[in-house]
């Protein structure tokens, strides 16, 4: 797929991450050496695990539930996606500079695995919220993301094959999750599941509040949960990425039809059951088994 390459850390050639050559040439070293501040707030995920949803939750909790600003400024400006402009050289602006130069406290999103993240994250130890999701739902969501943004035109089966062979962007998902799972008890890390957010959003909001040392009344939490509901996020132009998708489609020359594709797509737990053929489901079962997760996934 595209100009992707496997990058490995020097001291561990078995580990790798699939990224674009453009990232390697222009962003990798800069990101590794980036200065980190202790009041930074990071949301880190493998793609399609509920990043956007969590970003809005974290930003609101950190900013005294400032609905006015939330509704005025794009989430991608308030909470930049660090390595985004490293993915494709056509990307119209430098998201690394945007993230780096944000006034403190900075809110930063990344999909990078531990070994590609800034070295200082592990010494300065700012707050990191990590979210994961059933790899089957993530893989299906990642397929639609690629297909609908014109990044991939092949069949779903081939995409799932590429996913389980760790050939898609940011792969492998298994290692990404396990590496954060293994450090989840460090006090600056909060490990969340998409499925828990679906099951009981208010409880997860309270976890994040405690982690961010913020306190809100139950009424305020209830209002925030409405703001974070699927329907509300899907309609919210500051969050639903319509603007970015429009920019991307003008880059790729593909027509964008918001009626046909919304970044906030289905938002279901177990939606893969309607999407995967039995062989695709089995491939993902094998993939998940191979990871030897000791994660008590509640799928
Ligand atoms: P689906 O494609 O399965 O619908 P990310 O932000 O990491 O790219 O993740 C996107 C996924 O999160 C999409 O999954 C999207 O619909 C889902 N999502 C975003 N906001 C949500 C919400 N409020 N409730 C449930 N799912 C949500």
TrEMBL record:
<dbReference type="InterPro" id="IPR027417">
    <property type="entry name" value="P-loop_NTPase"/>
</dbReference>
<dbReference type="Pfam" id="PF00685">
    <property type="entry name" value="Sulfotransfer_1"/>
</dbReference>
<feature type="domain" description="Sulfotransferase">
    <location>
        <begin position="39"/>
        <end position="291"/>
    </location>
</feature>
<dbReference type="InterPro" id="IPR000863">
    <property type="entry name" value="Sulfotransferase_dom"/>
</dbReference>
<comment type="similarity">
    <text>Belongs to the sulfotransferase 1 family.</text>
</comment>
<dbReference type="GO" id="GO:0008146">
    <property type="term" value="F:sulfotransferase activity"/>
</dbReference>
<keyword id="KW-0808">Transferase</keyword>
<protein>
    <recommendedName>
        <fullName>Sulfotransferase domain-containing protein</fullName>
    </recommendedName>
</protein>
């Amino acid at each position: 797929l595209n100009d992707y390459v496997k990058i490995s850390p020097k001291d561990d050639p078995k580990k790798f991450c699939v990224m674009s050559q453009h990232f390697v040439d222009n962003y990798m070293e800069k990101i590794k050496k980036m200065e980190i501040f202790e009041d930074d707030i990071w949301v880190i995920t493998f793609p399609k695990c509920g990043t956007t949803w969590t970003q809005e939750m974290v930003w609101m909790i950190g900013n005294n539930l400032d609905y006015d600003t939330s509704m005025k400024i794009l989430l991608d400006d308030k909470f930049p996606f660090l390595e985004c402009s490293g993915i494709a050289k056509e990307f119209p602006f430098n998201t690394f500079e945007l993230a780096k130069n944000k006034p403190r406290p900075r809110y930063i999103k990344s999909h990078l695995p531990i070994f590609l993240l800034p070295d200082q994250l592990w010494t300065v130890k700012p707050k990191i919220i990590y979210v994961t999701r059933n790899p089957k739902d993530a893989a299906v969501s990642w397929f639609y993301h690629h297909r609908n943004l014109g990044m991939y035109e092949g069949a779903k089966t081939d995409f799932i094959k590429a996913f389980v062979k760790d050939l898609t962007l940011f792969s492998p998902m298994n290692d990404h999750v396990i590496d954060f799972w293994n450090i989840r008890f460090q006090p600056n890390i909060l490990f969340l599941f998409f499925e828990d957010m679906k099951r009981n959003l208010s409880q997860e909001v309270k976890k994040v509040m405690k982690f961010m040392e913020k306190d809100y009344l139950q009424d305020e939490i209830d209002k925030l949960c409405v703001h974070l509901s699927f329907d509300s996020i899907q309609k919210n132009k500051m969050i639903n990425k319509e603007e970015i998708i429009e920019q991307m489609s003008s880059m790729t020359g593909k027509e964008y039809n918001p009626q046909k594709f919304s970044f906030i797509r289905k938002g279901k737990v177990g939606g893969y059951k309607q999407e995967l053929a039995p062989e695709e489901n089995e491939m993902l079962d094998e993939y998940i088994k191979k990871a030897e997760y000791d994660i008590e996934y509640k799928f």
